[in-house]
Amino acid sequence: MPDQTAGSESSVSAQFPRLDHVGIMVRNLEASSNEWQRRFGLSISSTFEAPALNIRASFFALASATIELFTIDEPTALSDALGHESAKIDHIALRFDKSLGEVDLRGCTIRGPGRPDRIDGPFQIAGSDHVWTEPPGIDVLLQLIAPGTAELQGHDQSS
Question: Does pTM top 0.70 for this prediction?
Fold first, then answer.
């Protein structure tokens, strides 16, 4: 096991991805968000909308992680993804400090959020690159988040 002393924290965080959030697909975003607020006393820390993708989300910041509740405002795609369920854990999001080009994605189908269709490149969301994939051997849907090109260039100049 590697030595993880206090002085090595920044090198460890740069070497490994961080848990960004757990994504839960829900049929009714408003009702589900209200239930999380009522049951656990949580507040929505942020929201997200991508009209071109028909996706809306609410984020809840917990002490150690973030929960994303999201829905697809396209009934057929939502029914295909959820079946008869009202909600399901959809993905785990990992945030990297390096570009996605440095992540081993061999054998991975890169796709967009909430749909099985292959995409040609990452989605740009809030200046970061985002892809969804189920790496062979891991077999869990992962959302991979990496600094966008402009963000990486700014980091290189400040180093």
Answer: yes
